[in-house]
Amino acid sequence: MNEEKPNSRNIPLPIQREVRQRCGFGCVICGMPLYEYEHMEEWALVKRHIADEITLLCDQHHREKTSGLLPKEQVRRANEKPFNLQEGISKPYLLHFSGEEAIVEIGGNIFSCKDQGYGTAMVPISVDGTPLIGLIIADGHFLLNLVIFNEYNTPILHIKNNQLIFKPLAWDIQLVGTTLTLRENHRKILIEIEFCPPNKVIFKRGRFLRNGIEILVRPTNILITNNSTIIKNCTAVNCYGGLIIGYHEKAIGGFFAMDGISRYLGSNKEALKFEKESLQGSNI
Ligand SMILES: [Zn+2]
Q1: CA of 62 to the centre of ligand 1 (A)
Q2: What is the CA(211)–ligand 1 centre distance, in A?
């Protein structure tokens, strides 16, 4: 490991992650998922990076602390009891989507819909009656809906009508620039999403999990590991359903509907092998 220069202001990445985990992935005062790393003691005095001495503050609370409007003691108290960990859920963060057309790209496949009057909606992915991704266009306003489940079938991240909220249960959650990344551990990305406001969202890689269904998102294809289905270069325009998997009480018409699918039995090796063979030579 590289020895950190004692006077370098750059906080090593593993220390940043430790601070994020300890602070519940948000400002310790208000929970906002956009923040800065803040040494609780003045940098000029400490000149060292120790996770326990660093906290997360959003722009507003950082400015307030710097100007003296927010007492250092209050920051320390919040650091002991970070907002998101106390609440068990993050402060909602409003994404700035708008417009009369919405585009969602998932593993290189395009799902899009245009406002066709009152109540225009599209469900790019739904499993057992739960829309994992939903688009609504109401009054010319694009509303994104999303739910991400972890391996324990627990929903850990929601976007409800453009409001992003999460439970601080993932190993790591980061919103950097326009990219939101949830990690299950060091090398395992649960989901990586790029928000491209006003009207586009790109799911670059990750896993959609729900009731034993596993949908892997690669840069240029989707793989449903339960039955080794590869979806590549598809475009769905203005159809209500996209990938409709499992039992739906109310039938959803989609360009790809699959009922009676076997559930994940603990190994996706065969599907991964099939994907490799099928897509050999192409960039997956
Ligand atoms: Zn704050």
Answers
A1: 7
A2: 36
Q: Which two tokens stand for residue 264?
A: 């994940």
Ligand 1 centroid to residue 108 C-alpha, Å: 36
Q: pLDDT below 70 — which residues of the chain? A: 1-7, 264-266, 281-284
CA atoms within 13 A on the CB side of 248: 19
CA gap 228, 216 in Å, rounded: 10
What's residue 153's pLDDT? Answer: 93
- pLDDT reported for residue 1: 46
- Give the C-alpha separation, 202 to 239, whole Å: 19
Q: Are 108 and 202 in contact (CB under 8 A)?
A: no
- Residue 61 has which token pair? 């609370």
CA angle 281, 188, 241 (to 5 degrees): 70
Distance 9 CA to ligand 1 centre (A): 22
The structure's pTM equals 0.90
| pLDDT tens per residue across span 123-170 | 999 999 999 999 999 887 899 999 999 989 999 999 999 999 999 989
Where are the chain's structural domains? Answer: 13-87, 93-278
Tokens 């406002």 belong to 115
Residue 43, helix vs strand vs coil: helix
